[in-house]
Amino acid sequence: MISAINSEIIPENWYNVIPDLPEPLPPPKDSKAEFSSINLLNKILPKEVLRQEFTFKRYEKIPDEVIEQYEQIGRPTPLIRAKNLEKYLDYGGKIFYKFEGATATGSHKINTAIAQAYYAKNEGVNGVTTETGAGQWGSATALAASLYKLPAQIFMVKVSFIQKPLRKIVMNLYNGNVVPSPSNLTEYGRKILSENPDHPGTLGIGISEAVEYALDHDYRYMVASVMNSALTHQSVIGLETKKQLELIGEHADVLIGCVGGGSNFGGFTFPFIPDHPDTEIIATTADEVPKFSKGDYKYDLMDSAGVLPEVRMYSLGADFVPPTIYAGGLRYHGASPSLSLLINKGRIKSDEVNQEEVKNAIRTFANTQGIIAAPESGHAIATMLNYVKAHKNEKKTIVVNVSGHGLLDLSIFQ
């Protein structure tokens, strides 16, 4: 039973940005001649997730069971005015943050994990599998699978597997099985290891392993980001934010979020696209992974092995091996097609900040608001701080998405 307060804020429908894009989204295309990677999606994604991936419907009904689980894991998440930070910055405007770290797994990832696990369970499959970078998505997948009594096999990028041991414990507590990627569980992983036993891993490799594992074990692949269905499920963030702002009589002049593949950012900002044309929207990422400034807007592979279809996106190339920065969720070589199109058309601006700026931003936010943000979210906070400094005399209302807490990422400060 959903409480009266939550029912005012948790939406009944997810929002799909596709009908409101400035031009039609370029469709995916097969990546290899010897088989159809598009048809392969029928074998690895839950059928309902695949339908939602290609729909032109503006809204999708959220199943009642999913809404009930949203409430159980902490939705709606709080929208908080950062008055201490405003005072510290001597800012004449207003700063709000949407705190997705308040969910059970500590990040936004659980929003789509619950939906996908629910649909997979309804199909009666053997289990679910996915990749994870920093571990937030792996944690969300493990919990969502556990809620629906499904086994979960998770391939964690090796460098993060080493850097973030506590994330492995969380996934294990949620009954998930996690291995470093590249691994010996798949043919593709064994191939990579034979060429370089010390390969640090990439999200592209992890995706390839998870897809192969899904095909071999009648599992379903859980989509962390990039694909539009995941961004649609994440729209619960932005829809809640709009309602919360409306209830207190506020209007967002600026929206800022971080981008790995695009799920938290798209979920947070896309619901504002159709009816907030004057709201400035800024996507920020790591300058160590400069997909927007140095990547190409082109058709490229989503995974290293080329099992999944090619999509048109900003990309540094599927074979890009990023530096071992602590923001593991921002190491992905590309960005979602819908976000890429909106950046290409100028509706969304982009920014890139380095790890030192991020550490300083996390420290500032912690010492004013008390929240220790995830390294990924620290990029959004850093961009917000830079924006305030550049617009000190403008009384704008800025809303930033703090997409997760960093309590399991404190090694960044060692």
Structure description:
The chain has helices spanning 4-9, 37-44, 47-53, 64-72, 83-89, 110-122, 136-147, 158-163, 165-173, 187-195, 203-217, 228-247, 263-269, 337-344, 355-369, 375-390, and strands spanning 13-15, 59-61, 79-81, 94-99, 127-132, 152-157, 176-181, 219-221, 254-258, 280-286, 296-301, 310-315, 349-353, 397-402. The chain folds into 2 domains: 4-64 and 109-221, Rossmann fold (3-Layer(aba) Sandwich), CATH 3.40.50; 71-107 and 228-413, Rossmann fold. The chain has a 6-stranded mixed sheet with strand order 3-4-14-9-10-13, sandwiched between helices. The protein has a 4-stranded parallel sheet with strand order 7-6-5-8, sandwiched between helices. A two-stranded antiparallel ribbon has the order 1-2. It is globular. Helix content is 40%, strand content 17%. With 414 residues, it is of the alpha/beta class.
Describe the protein's topology.
Elements: H1 4-9, E1 13-15, H2 37-44, H3 47-53, E2 59-61, H4 64-72, E3 79-81, H5 83-89, E4 94-99, H6 110-122, E5 127-132, H7 136-147, E6 152-157, H8 158-163, H9 165-173, E7 176-181, H10 187-195, H11 203-217, E8 219-221, H12 228-247, E9 254-258, H13 263-269, E10 280-286, E11 296-301, E12 310-315, H14 337-344, E13 349-353, H15 355-369, H16 375-390, E14 397-402
Parallel strand pairs: 4-14, 5-6, 5-8, 6-7, 9-10, 9-14, 10-13
Antiparallel strand pairs: 1-2, 3-4, 11-12
Q: Summed up, what is this model?
A:
Helix content is 40%, strand content 17%. By secondary structure, it is an alpha/beta fold.
